[in-house]
From TrEMBL, chain A:
<dbReference type="GO" id="GO:0005737">
    <property type="term" value="C:cytoplasm"/>
</dbReference>
<dbReference type="GO" id="GO:0016829">
    <property type="term" value="F:lyase activity"/>
</dbReference>
<keyword id="KW-0456">Lyase</keyword>
<feature type="active site" description="Nucleophile">
    <location>
        <position position="87"/>
    </location>
</feature>
<dbReference type="Pfam" id="PF00117">
    <property type="entry name" value="GATase"/>
</dbReference>
<comment type="pathway">
    <text>Amino-acid biosynthesis; L-histidine biosynthesis; L-histidine from 5-phospho-alpha-D-ribose 1-diphosphate: step 5/9.</text>
</comment>
<comment type="function">
    <text>IGPS catalyzes the conversion of PRFAR and glutamine to IGP, AICAR and glutamate. The HisH subunit catalyzes the hydrolysis of glutamine to glutamate and ammonia as part of the synthesis of IGP and AICAR. The resulting ammonia molecule is channeled to the active site of HisF.</text>
</comment>
<feature type="active site">
    <location>
        <position position="199"/>
    </location>
</feature>
<keyword id="KW-0963">Cytoplasm</keyword>
From TrEMBL, chain B:
<dbReference type="Pfam" id="PF00977">
    <property type="entry name" value="His_biosynth"/>
</dbReference>
<dbReference type="GO" id="GO:0005737">
    <property type="term" value="C:cytoplasm"/>
</dbReference>
<comment type="pathway">
    <text>Amino-acid biosynthesis; L-histidine biosynthesis; L-histidine from 5-phospho-alpha-D-ribose 1-diphosphate: step 5/9.</text>
</comment>
<dbReference type="InterPro" id="IPR011060">
    <property type="entry name" value="RibuloseP-bd_barrel"/>
</dbReference>
<comment type="similarity">
    <text>Belongs to the HisA/HisF family.</text>
</comment>
<dbReference type="GO" id="GO:0000107">
    <property type="term" value="F:imidazoleglycerol-phosphate synthase activity"/>
</dbReference>
<dbReference type="InterPro" id="IPR050064">
    <property type="entry name" value="IGPS_HisA/HisF"/>
</dbReference>
<keyword id="KW-0963">Cytoplasm</keyword>
<dbReference type="InterPro" id="IPR004651">
    <property type="entry name" value="HisF"/>
</dbReference>
Length: 219, 257
């Protein structure tokens, strides 16, 4: 939990304040687990945090613009502690995104890319006969969950809350998959950078479990 | 597989949850936070909080309850009612709401949908539509300001046209409330919802008319909606969410465990 260093309380984690709107829901979820969390764009605060979260909503183009304007790119890419990107935050960790038909250079920390979810191959139907639409919105299960401490105690029966229309394909950096029209990366990892496409802060008990796993990762 | 969603709707007035029949005669159900927490624990997949008087009154509301909810619940929730601008939306989202739902303000200023989409992303832009089946003309008609009987009025939009309009402007989800069915617990309007399903390629949530567990099975199986919203059956304890989800699983409707 939180430690005291001098007169300053040091947080267990920092959420990078990229200016996106819904940071509080993530902050509250981490606090519910008993951790102390700060929201900051201050270099020294982010650098000394044991864990870093990169949130994100909106579009990749808009979010990368924000990161560039705030001059956060070189800071984020140089971090050595575990970093977890959530939803668009995960997508920003990749090499590039093709959201809205625009090529956007991302942080290039996980060597993959982001494209629109392809629902055409599913003939527009789910196994129960109903149609697919975008965004992929709601609770879905995972498959091919890798043997990684981030997914300790999490099985293919657990549901997570997804809201997205773009995804990273399955690659060697995939930690867990999800299927909606196509198989895609529900979670990514390369070096100390982790990402989840779903929203653990809004995924009930299973999401809380994943957040706790991340906080307890041995780096 | 993507689960279908069960969504309790909590009508909020002055920080309390209320319930009316056909938008009238509101009775107090209870405090917001404990009720929200109870539904989340019982397996609700999402919650909608609807400030029923906001749009019609045109006043600024104390919305601090949004943050109190965000602190305790760990499932997504949407705030509806009285959101008229990007600034209003920003406030709700920064207090911890996952989505904002707009209804009358979208009818007054359809470009608001485009602006909200650009600033906050499609995923949080929900459009609520109050639709009324006019037996005389045989048409589905969109209404506005339904929170206040004295201001409630028919718009120039037919339901299917408005659905397509909001979709083309970047809405992320549609909640279709069938006014004829609201609060009367006679079942969802399958015919109307199926008609809207045909034209909607974004998630569609059914609202209005749930009375029995069979009604939920019908709306998922026959109208292929993504979620079903209901209020009184949950508030009055007529249907327990755990029982409903167990029943729907037996009917092969994919449900989150």
């Amino acid at each position: 939990m939180s430690q005291l260093r001098g007169n300053q309380t040091v947080s267990d984690a920092v959420i990078v304040d990229t200016g996106c709107a819904n940071i509080n829901s993530l902050k509250f979820a981490i606090e519910r687990l008993g951790y102390k969390v700060a929201v900051s764009r201050d270099e020294s605060v982010i650098r000394q945090a044991p864990r870093v979260f990169l949130p994100g909503v909106g579009s990749a183009e808009y979010a990368m613009q924000g990161i560039n304007e705030l001059q956060l790119k070189s800071l984020i890419t140089s971090l050595t502690q575990p970093v977890l990107g959530i939803c668009l935050g995960m997508q920003l960790l990749t090499r590039e995104s093709f959201e809205n038909g625009v090529q956007t250079d991302c942080l290039n920390l996980i060597d993959t890319e982001v494209k629109g979810i392809d629902i055409s191959g599913a003939s527009g139907t789910q196994p129960d006969g109903s149609g697919l639409r975008l965004p992929h919105m709601g609770w879905n299960t995972l498959s091919n969950i890798g043997d990684n401490p981030l997914f300790d105690g999490i099985s293919e029966d657990d549901y997570f809350y997804f809201v997205h229309s773009y995804c990273a394909p399955v690659s060697i950096h995939t930690l867990a998959e999800c299927r909606y029209g196509q198989d895609f990366s529900a979670s990514l990892n390369q070096n100390n950078f982790y990402g989840v496409q779903f929203h653990p802060e809004r995924s009930g008990q299973s999401g809380a479990r994943l957040l706790r796993n991340f906080m307890e990762l041995v780096s | 597989m993507l689960a279908k969603r069960i969504i309790p709707c909590l009508d909020v007035r002055d920080g309390l949850v209320v319930k009316g029949v056909k938008f009238r005669n509101h009775e107090i159900i209870g405090d917001i936070v404990p009720l929200a927490q109870k539904y989340a624990e019982q397996g609700a997949d999402e919650l909608v909080f609807y400030d029923i008087t906001a749009s019609a009154d045109g006043r600024t509301l104390d919305r601090s309850w949004v943050e109190r909810i965000a602190k305790v619940i760990d499932i997504p929730f949407c705030v509806a009612g009285g959101i008229k601008s990007e600034a209003d939306a920003q406030k709700m989202l920064s207090m911890g709401a996952d989505k904002i739902s707009i209804n009358s303000p979208a009818l007054a200023d359809p470009d608001l949908i485009n602006r909200l989409n650009r600033q906050f992303g499609q995923q949080c832009v929900v459009i609520g539509i109050d639709s009324y089946f006019d037996e005389q003309t045989g048409q589905y008609q969109v209404y506005q300001y339904t929170g206040d009987e004295t201001k409630s009025s028919k718009t120039r939009w037919q339901t299917a046209d408005w659905v397509q309009e909001v979709q083309s402007r970047g809405a992320g989800e549609i909640v279709l409330n069938v006014m004829n069915q609201d609060g009367v617990r006679q079942g969802y309007d399958i015919e109307q919802l199926s008609m809207v399903r045909e034209v909607a390629n974004i998630p569609l949530i059914a609202s209005g008319g749930a009375g029995t567990m069979e009604h939920f099975a019908d709306v998922f199986q026959q109208a292929d909606v993504d979620g079903a919203l209901a209020a009184s059956v949950f508030h009055k304890g007529i249907i327990a969410i755990e029982d409903l989800k167990a029943y729907l699983r037996e009917q092969n409707v994919p449900m989150r465990k």
